[in-house]
Structures are given as structure tokens and as C-alpha cells.
Amino acid sequence: MADAPKSFPLPSSVKVTTGTEAAQAAYPYYTQFKPEDDQRFWFYNSMHFPEPMHHFDMITAEAAYCALGSFNTRVHVLPTTKGIDHRIINGRVFIGGVAVTDPEEIAARAAEFQQRAFYYYEHWEKLYDQWKDKMKALIAEAQALPSPSLPDLEPIETTHTGKGVAANHALIDTYRKQLEGYFRMWHHHFEFLLLGYGAYLTFFDFCKRAFPEISDQAISRMVAGMEAEIFRPDEEIKRLARRAVELGVDNHFHDEMDIDQVLAGLDQLGDKGREWLDELETSRNPWFNVNVGDGFYHYHRSWNDDLSMPFAALPGYIDKIRAGENIERPLDRLVEERDQLVADYRELLDTDEDRATYDQLIGLAHRVFPYVEGHKFYCEHWYTNLFFNKIREFGALLAEHGFFAKEEDVFHLTHYELESAIVDLMLAWSSGSDPRGPGHWPAIVAQRQQAIESWAGETVPPALGVVPDVIDDPAIVMLWGITRENLDTWLSDGAENTNELRGFAACSGVVEGTARVIRSVKEIGRIEQGDILVCQVTNPTWSPLFQKISAAVSDIGGSMSHMAIVAREYGLPAVVGTGSATQKIRDGQRIRVDGGRGLVTLLDEEKVLEDA
Predict the structure, then answer these.
(1) What are the extents of the domains in the chain?
(2) Assigned CATH class of 482-602
(3) pLDDT band at 547 (very low <50, low <70, confident <90, very high)
């Protein structure tokens, strides 16, 4: 009798948490699991959505996957993969790739890809400069949108100039422009990203064929040492730390400081204090327009909105500067190691043809790869922070008219529901009647807030459905770290050795230390000097914390995930894509991280069980 195919829980077997049924049903119908979804494989996208999703925040998945699929399927025409479908249950986003398996279709798509992608590769610098101009223009358009407001009476100029449009029309016009800009931003986001991965993957495949024994980590180190905008915010904190020491105001920065008191004290200090404050303003615009998450949650505020993250990093950098320690990213060493690796492996090639191909592929990877991280500053951070803050302005207006208690409650509405609430207010203002919203939304907001809190405490399966024979989407392997071998490990629940977790070797080095299990960005303040960070996923804007931690471990991620890239750029030992580190490792437990082997060992004698 043939063995039954290995399977994670089927989507149909996952029950909606009791008491949250209405909140689950409020997500758009096209994001709900249906019986036919049992036939497919899905995995929990904890890389981008590690926390339960507020209803408005689901626009971050919707807009992103609209754009990603468009460029995969219809614009650049990737040969073996199309877009990504997404579903949500109990506030958690699961995704499934759409593979191309028919050889004739693959061949036809490959011919299209050659015409389309290679034009971008040949004109990369010119098109990328245009891309930056497009993004800056899009940001300027969003900044120029007016704050929503409703006067008691129209200004007399409306009639005396023949304007012919009343103030309530501006509400719907502004809101729809905000949504249009956000969806357009995601199209810009994916214009180059998939091609950046594609160039690296082509080089990766060549190396695997030419050097059968080469490790994934060795290949990834050949593209390390990049200059990208997403690293600039951390560089600005270091600059501010150096200026504080140079100006003699460094004693104001310590772990117990009150930020408002520090700012007021420096302002009253005199010229040197005000000079440092001027330096702070220089850094803030634009470099503090980064959020503490990865750009998918409204409450992951930017450094400009909340200075806690950059200021928390200042004392550590200042102490190192006082001690004469180097606080710079080891860029020169990374470039030297990169160039030596590239040269060493080139010497192993036997033919001029192979060497020419190798030179071409690594040259292209070096040209395009900085975009893989650099785009995040403009898209997930600067623009997304601006977008969410504009939505907050609508929340404030609706709260002022009694639709709910506070502006943040607006994020419990889907983007469709928010438009209906805006129209409700427009109608009431125009007729002089009371809006219906104050009698409709408060109970719904409270219900959904309770659902978010309930879902936050639940254990989420890493995947759903039948395990495929192969994972043939290279991006899913490289970015999310989903391989057939990893899935088998997740299914076995580590039965072979409950004291070990395996994942991708992101950055070499062996470290023993105390595990600090962080399940939300709200908890990052618990990290102490020398801790090993254990999380579902991290991102480049956590890099100021890397001066504190000695190593990092994640549940999700492949060799080209943002965590793996950032770890290599900072020389931090790391293992990514373990599947269940945040569930298997106890906070405060001693562990060993072997970043070169992709191995995490639990050192305490007590076995940590998943249900402990």
C-alpha cells in the first residue's frame, strides 16, 4: 500500500477561533479559504505578516500581491512561476505560489522573458535612476494631498470664484487618490525587485553546476558589501553618536533617558546643544522615515513618529566611541572577502567560455543586487509611513464626528468600509443630518479589537495542505526559505533531536548565549547586551540593535531573505528559516548558534517542548 502524501493540516480543518467569527467574515471574500483550497499547498507568510492583521492593514497584502503577480505573470513574464495567491484565517496570512509546469508554456514564457528582462539588465542604471525619480514624485504627490476636513460653511470664495465643488467632495477625492498612490507604489516596488533576484538566481544556478560542493552561503558572500539606502538610517544614528561626543553633549544619552527631557535640555544648553539638534533634523529628513517593522502594519511607526528606536541605539554607540571601538559596518572587509571569493572560484573554471559566463553573471549581480535592499527605504518605509499617517487623518476626522473613540480605530475597518464611512459623513454634512456611523462602528471596532487580541496568543501552523513533491519557485526558496527538506523537518517536528533546530546558514560564526525570544516589535526593548535574538523575522531597520545582540535566529527566511542579507552585511552569525524557533526555544534559555552550518542547539538540559 502506497504511503499517503505528507500533509500539514488542510485549510478546511483550521477552525475560526470561537468568538471571532464576525471579524473573520469581515475580511474580503476573495481572501477567505474555500474547500477547493485543500488541493493546494499554503505557507504562513510570517516574514511579512508575523502578527495578526487589522482589517485595513490587509491592503498591504492585497496591493503587494496585485503588483507582484502582474510583473511575474504579465510584465516580465517569468518562465516557471506566476503570481501569489493569499488567504487569511484568524488574522494570519497564508500564501501559495502559482507555478508553471507545462514545458511548452515555459518555453514560450522564456522567450518573452528574454526580450523584456534583458532590456532592463542592459539599461539598468538609466532605468533605476528613472525609478528613483518616479518614487520621489509619488512621495511628493502623497505629501501634497490635503488633510481631510469639513467646515461649518463653505468659504465665500467657493461662490465668488465659481469653484463649483463643495468641501465634502474633497474627502472622497483625497481618499481615492491615497489608495491609487499606494497601489501604484507597489507596482514601482516590483518593477525591479524580481529582476534583481533573477540575476542573482542565474548566477547561483551557474555556481551550483560549476562547483558542486559550493555552499549557498559562499555564493551569497560573493554579492555582500553593498551600498543601499536602507542601511543609511543606522549610519545616521552612528553619525549623531559621533557628533554628540565631539560636541561634548554625550552625557545626555543613557539607557534611562526621557527623550522629551533630552531634547528640551539640549535646546537650553546653548550653541552645542542646538547644533546637535540641528544635526538630528538633518538626519530625520528623510532618513528617519523608516518604521520599526517591515512596512505592513499601521502601528509599526516610523522613527520620525517615535524616536524610541534611534535613541535607544545612541547610548550603545556612544559608549563604543568613547572606548575607541569601531562602530562602522565592516564594508571594506566584506568587499575584500567578496572579491577574493570571486577570484578563487574563477580559477577553478576550466574553459574561457565558462570564465566569460561567470564574469558576466557576477558582474550583473553586483550591478543589480543593491536594489534588492535599497528599494525598501522608498517603498515599504518612506511611502508606507506617509500613507498610514494620511489614513490616520481620516481616522481623526471620523473620531471627531463620533464614528469611534480614537483615530487608530480606523484601522479596524477594511479599505472598502472606510470609503463607506467617508461617504456616510459626506452625506450627513451635505444634508445637515446626523451620520449613521456613530451608531454602527463602535461595537464593530470593539469586536475586532477583541479578535486581534485573541488571535495574537495563538500558535500558527507553518503551512497548510499537501506537501508538494518539489518547490520549483526559486523566489520561495531564496526569500522565504521554503524547501522540501525544510518542510519534511517541520512535519517531523524535529523528532530526531529535540535539542537541535536546522535552517539556512545565513552568516558564519559560532556563538553561545542567552536566547531572547521576540514575537513582536513591541518587545524589542527587552533585548539586552549579548543576547541572541530569536524571532519570526527581522528587517534592516532593526540593524541598530545588532550592536547589542551576538547572533540571530529566525522562523522564516532563506539565504536571500532580508534578515540573511543584513546579518551578512553586519557580520552577525545567523540561522534563518528554522520553522519553529520562537516556539521551541524558551526565552532566557542558553543556546548555541552555528551560522556556518545552519544549526541551533538548545543547551539547557530541560527539553523545551512546543506546548511548554
Answers:
(1) 229-322, 482-602
(2) alpha beta
(3) confident
